[in-house]
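Data availability (excerpt). The following record was deposited with the supplementary files.
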Amino acid sequence: MNILISNDDGVFAPGILAAKQAVEDLANVTVVAPDKNNSSVGRRLTLFKHLEIKTCELEDGSSAYSVSGSPADSVVVGTNYVMDEKPDLVICGINQGVNISCDITSSGTVCAAFEAVSLGIPAIAVSLFMDPETSFKQDENGEWYIDYDFTLTKDVLHDLVLKIKNEGFPQGVDLFNLNVPSNYDSEEVKITHLSHKMLDKDVIDNTNNEKEDIFNYHLDENQSSDDLIMIVSDLIKEYDEGSDGYALFVDKCPSLTPLNVNMSSRDLKDW
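Predicted structure:
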């Protein structure tokens, strides 16, 4: 079995090494990913423009490839240029964050998996939701750091790939979207459907006192804020039972959503 691993957080993000470690006993693994963070770029492709590809070394000493493009670019480059033959499976992640609901079409992680499906390759998009209360910690000097505990995510991903290796994908399923909470109450994987949405979005400017710190965070001191705006978002708080959001935030267990990339709705006989 040959597996291509990519992501949207960048080739040196800890999640991509965790994904490799989760499945390297099951397959020959090739890592091709963007050279820097490409979160929320959707399925952006770089067509008829030069891309720089470099060999690099992951933290465990293994080799990988970085691409100066998007996650979808990396999947195309990995499949059609780096690997000698088409991979049997593409894994995108482990994303540091959450990718649920119909908002997944903006996710670089999930859309890289979509790109794999368009190339005729089944795929898994996998994300670790890092609970703010448990994932962000302080060291003995009071410095904040992120505790990336991929243990459960790696276990679930390994078992999922093993099942796919032995049994193949279920009929009608093109890809799986897997989300695992860092602060979990149960290790049981729930099969879910997409929530209606994940984020409430708003637009703010320099008159918004509530989000003043966010608005001014990257503001150059020589840059006027009078003509600047910013799109901000907040996670939805309530989800329907049986949805990916409900499993993640209410049941606090891993959510596995089977997806078909054909978005056609064909039943219009009563329209």
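Summary of structural features: The chain has seven helices and 13 strands.
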